[in-house]
């Protein structure tokens, strides 16, 4: 009985440590944050939440791949890892260039309302969701992250598959909640950010950040 209680306490402490580590990782700005911000600016809170949902689904896929060992094979395969790495970097750079293009050459000149309506027509909820999903699935660093993080907090004994998948899903849910909150916060000030000059500035800064993140992913070592 005592041994069982000790094991339960260890499992609880390990889970709490996982939650704490996950919070630090999730709130640290990165490609997911930048993509969510841009979707929110273009399509409002719904767009940002849809992007967050796509990112969370991508993380769930990575968690499943980690649970069955596929993510470890990806990390071990240099050609496959580099292929996904460069595809992911290219996608972020593409989004960044597109944002810069719209900052320098806005699609519509006129009132803020016209620009806002045009933005909604360009980014549907499905497109926002797809951008989040592709952005996360095309980032091989997620494979490295999940294969290195999740096993550290998996308790001894029990089903390793179920445990790793459960931890990955918890991480994905936490990510979704944080990014959805982020989208709601950005949406609150979206009216001011939709002013033509401010919007172009934010679009330009977001584009530069996305390009920088893409270049960093492409050039950094494992």
TrEMBL record:
The keyword Membrane applies. This is LysE family translocator. One of its GO terms (cellular component) is plasma membrane. Signal peptide: none annotated. Its main location: membrane. GO terms for molecular function: amino acid transmembrane transporter activity. It comes from the Bacteria. The keyword Transmembrane applies. It is found in: Cell membrane. It comes from Bradyrhizobium zhengyangense. The chain crosses the membrane at residues 12-31, 51-76, 83-101, 161-181, 201-219. Keywords: Cell membrane, Membrane, Transmembrane, Transmembrane helix. It is a multi-pass membrane protein.
């Amino acid at each position: 009985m005592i041994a069982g209680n000790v094991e339960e306490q260890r499992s609880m402490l390990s889970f709490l440590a996982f939650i704490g580590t996950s919070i630090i990782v999730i709130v640290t700005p990165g490609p997911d944050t930048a993509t969510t911000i841009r979707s929110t600016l273009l399509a409002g809170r719904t767009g940002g939440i849809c992007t967050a949902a796509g990112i969370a689904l991508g993380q769930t896929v990575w968690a499943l791949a980690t649970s069955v060992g596929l993510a470890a094979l990806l990390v071990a395969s240099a050609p496959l890892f580099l292929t996904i790495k460069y595809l992911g970097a290219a996608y972020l750079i593409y989004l960044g260039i597109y944002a810069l293009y719209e900052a320098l050459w806005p699609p519509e000149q006129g009132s803020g309302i016209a620009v806002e309506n045009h933005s909604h027509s360009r980014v549907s909820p499905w497109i926002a969701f797809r951008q989040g999903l592709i952005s996360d699935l095309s980032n091989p660093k997620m494979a490295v992250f999940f294969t290195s993080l999740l096993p550290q907090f998996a308790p001894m004994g029990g089903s390793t598959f179920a445990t790793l998948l459960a931890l990955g899903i918890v991480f994905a849910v936490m990510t979704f909640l944080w990014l959805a909150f982020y989208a709601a916060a950005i949406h609150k000030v979206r009216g001011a950010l939709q002013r033509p000059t401010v919007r172009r500035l934010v679009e330009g800064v977001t584009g530069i950040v996305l390009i920088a993140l893409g270049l960093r992913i492409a050039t950094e070592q494992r």
